[in-house]
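TICKET #2291
ISSUE: user wants both folds in one file
ATTACHMENT 1:
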Amino acid sequence: MASPSDDSPAHAPSDWLAAWQEHGDREALGRLLAAEVEALKARLRKRWNPSITPDFGVSDAAQEAVGRLLGQEQPLTFETPQALRAYLWKAARRLLEEHLRRRRSVGLDDVSATGLDGALAISGGHGSVERRDRADALEVVVNLLEPEEQQILELAITRGLGVEGAARELGIPLDRARNRHERARRQLEVKLRHWSELIG
């Protein structure tokens, strides 16, 4: 999700959108989402306080909106970057409104600063909020990996087969599986770092 260089074939959001939707270019999707999340966060900050509550804010809403987009069983298509921006805005706005509605219904408006730890303890405390944020970020970033990178990580880590078991499952030589696994882990690390910086 680095900034496009001058030799990059796609320089503008409309180019990135086309590269993603027409060719499945995950790097273009990452660049497009990085640009759109920045715009989305700025727009949400104008409408709402950046930290809506201690456990949910503008960045959380932006990240969850992207997560929902990437989690669709059938990939959504957008004619323009503006249509994508409108989709993300609507999703994030609904998430924030839903969060505020839930917050009011359980009486958290009256929680004092000293009572916050007690209120968070009910839901697992600060650690659970951080774990949820990391899990959301990881889900977004995995969806930005190439399909073969997603596949090797799914088999080796999520299903617990290790690299050798993944090689057997995929029917590829062990050296090739190791290389693919290492490449996928490096990509995951880089993208996760960029995404975490973007979301804040």
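ATTACHMENT 2:
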Amino acid sequence: MDWLAHILEAQARYARCLDDGPLEAWPDFFLDDGFYKITTADNHRRGLEAGLIWADNRRMLQDRVSALRHANIYERQSYRHVLGLPLIGARTDEEARSETPFVALRIVRDGPTDIFASGRSLDRWRRVGSELKLAERIVVCDSSRIDTLLALPL
């Protein structure tokens, strides 16, 4: 399997889903028992488990989307993800790891476009039929400071 080509496509589809929606499709990028966490570089380096967002299955991700749509109140905003090239790590026929740098721009409806976050995603991908699914995504933000509510996933 050409892991690089498949991961590039999966990453592009993931970013497009977050940036342009529908957000309800975001959990479908993960296995049923997929893990998702956003943390800081310092916490990651120190091996601290807590995250700004932490979910250990797809149902938790679906709940997050539901809360964003129906329960949480936050300033209307969107993101634009700019991705670097993934570095492919350990791989087998069925699974591969990758590290992908990113910058997320935050766009406020009637306001400026700002750099919201930068960092890298540490991913474990699993082949499911002809698709790749995330078994794990750990988003490691470069800064420990988040200027506003982390409403949407990265």
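RESOLUTION: both attachments delivered.
EXTRA DETAIL ON ATTACHMENT 2: The CA atoms of residues 24 and 53 lie 17 Å apart.
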